[in-house]
Every structure is written in C-alpha cells, then in structure tokens.
Design a protein that fits this description.
toxin-antitoxin system, 6 helices, hydrolase, mainly alpha, 79% helix
Length: 126
C-alpha cells in the first residue's frame, strides 16, 4: 500500500472507524465492566493502536498537515500507540478508560471536521 499525501483521507478514515468501534464496544459499559472485560480491553487497545499508526502515517506523508492542525493530537496518538504496543502488561487501564470517555469524543469531532474540509476542498477543485 502506497504512502502519499493522497492517502490522507484514508488515514483520517481509519482513525474515524477505530474511534467508532471503540465507542460501539464501550457504549453501554461502565468503567468497572471495562476493567473486568479482557475482551473489551483488547479490542479497545487494538483500535487505539490503529489510531496511533494512522496518525504516524499522516505525519509521514503530510507533515505540513500536522503542523497546520496542532490542536489535533496526532503525535500524542502515536506516542500512546507505542506505549500500548510495547507496554504489554503495564498498561494502566484506568487511563485508557479516561481516554475513551474524555479524549475520543473530541478527537472524533476533529477528525470528522478535517474529513469534511478535505471533501469540500476536493469538491471545489482545490
């Protein structure tokens, strides 16, 4: 699969899909239920890794895009991906839960706005 600036909408879409999956998996779940469900934990962590990897791909193919959108935590998402991927059994699941509750809704809005902006720019020939 090629990595080019034209892939930017794909990578943003991957982030959006991963957020939607996490929200679907945890929608009716309390923090206690999440902390007791290895399956939910594994599913969430996998999708956080996808968010981080897609964020890294965006930074690789279009660093100017990342610079132009400093409020979107793409670098942090990649750092979190590394912590999750390499932390193995040292992951603080309470921190993961707080991220689900506090950070993902904002990130979802940001990603949707970016995708809409790209779509509008494409529609008018930019």
């Amino acid at each position: 699969m090629s990595r080019s600036p034209q892939r930017l909408p794909d990578y943003l879409g991957h982030i959006s899909q991963a957020i939607e999956r996490i929200q679907r998996y945890t929608d009716q779940m309390s923090e206690i239920a999440f902390l007791q469900s290895e399956m939910a934990q594994d599913a969430v962590i996998r999708n956080l890794e996808i968010i981080g990897e897609a964020s890294r791909n965006i930074a690789s193919v279009d660093p100017d895009f990342v610079s132009a959108n400093p409020d979107v935590p793409l670098n942090f998402a990649y750092e979190m991906r590394n912590a999750l991927s390499h932390g193995y059994f040292q992951v603080d699941l309470s921190v993961v839960w707080k991220m689900i509750e506090r950070d993902l809704p904002t990130l979802k809005q940001q990603i949707h706005a970016l995708l809409a902006g790209i779509s509008n720019a494409t529609d008018i020939g930019i």
